[in-house]
Amino acid sequence: MSEFGLRLDRFGLGAPAIKPKDDMGGAAGFPKNIETSPGQKSFVEFLQESLNSVNEVQLDADKAAQSFAKGENIQLHEVLVAMEKADVALRTVTAFRNKLVEAYQEIMRMPV
Questions:
Q1: What are the phi and psi torsion angles at 38 (to 5°)?
Q2: 80: part of which helix (H) or strand (E)?
Q3: What pLDDT is recorded for position 35?
Q4: Whole-prediction pTM value?
């Protein structure tokens, strides 16, 4: 939980829950021995960085709103731009999560 009370996992994104598992060793249950090309990130690393980026945008918008509410030197349009960026980022991540869940469900429906 952040100092402003924002938790990504309340949206079902699960960012705080992505940790290495003892049985397989990799993040989110993926084996550590999956190799990527030199200079290329794994999907899990990309996803973690994206979620962290969205979280930072959310926190920035929250700080801007709090600063404006306290009467600090910040313009209203700056607050609105920060909040709109946070909204777009959250909608994008939510749409991405929905597509991932949909793809997983489709795979699970396939006959073996």
A1: -55, 135
A2: helix 76-109
A3: 67
A4: 0.62
